[in-house]
Amino acid sequence: MPLNLASIRQAPKALLHDHLDGGLRPATVLELAEDCGYDGLPAADAEALAHWFREAADSGSLVRYLETFDHTVAVMQTPDGLRRVARECAEDLAADGVVYAEIRFAPEQHLERGLTLDEVVEHTLAGFRQGEQLAAEAGRPIVVRCLLTAMRHAARSREIAELAVRWRSQGVCGFDIAGAEAGYPPTRHLDAFEYLRANHAHFTIHAGEAFGLPSIHEALAFCGSDRLGHGVRITDDIDVPGSIEDARLGVVANYVRDKRVPLELCPSSNVQTGAAPSLDKHPFDLLARLRFRVTVNTDNRLMSDTSMSREMLKLVQTFGYGWSDLERFTINAMKSAFIPFPERLRIIDDIIKPGYAVLIG
Questions:
Q1: Catalytic positions, please?
Q2: N or C: fewer beta carbons within 10 Å in the chain?
Q3: pLDDT over threshold 70, residue 62
């Protein structure tokens, strides 16, 4: 089957790195703002608001990129708002052919109207369950799990780690830290990571996006992260003097490849935040050819005006990938999911491989 946006939408996809507060529908932002009395939006109609988010996120600065979340988080402070955003997230991903998704968000940012951390998680998970049900009824089943994020500039990471463990049998599959990397190394949160390891809990860390190799080194060597959120700057430890066969990997890069540490790469977002200079110079292809465990992700669908299908299409158009490549990236993601092995295997064997077999022919 020809590779285009319509055909890629038919392919089963697995998504590991997507922020709940970065994927709202513009119309939903407007309606929730009216419902909760938030009057700080920069535009008054859905089309103009979508354009503003995209333009603001295109600044090339991670700090400026993160400022766009002030508006989405502001309208996600009530039970109805959280449930609606989570439900629509599941529906939108399923409509795009995503069959498994891990959606992350920071509960500590949703307490302004009196909700407790547990209530924030409860309402969000309820929205995901409703979205899963509606997607299944529409003939596009999806499994959605949640990662609880702690903000790296704050001091609640141990509390959020405990929250993740408390809810892990009810839809929470792991933990994450996010926010500006520079000046906020992951080692500031060692007590949280020690607690997670003591409780055999999965976690990923935003590392190697806006900051370089030291961030990746700390995430792995001192914190023990299972995956790397972005991890683009692992290329700081790779030298390619000539052809790909001549590539020389440093100690950290060799460790990441040897241990099959998953890289949660987000092509469009990485360009927007300046982690990669352009799509054609994004290290995705280098890392894929060197057989790192690369995965394709959206990061923030609203800010990047993207979807999993669009991210895959951009990679196809930029690097000439075929169906077998997209299948490999998808299986990479599913192998790296924070759910039990039998569940991963079922989705790979019963959904992903048969789905791509039809497309490949």
A1: 209
A2: C
A3: no
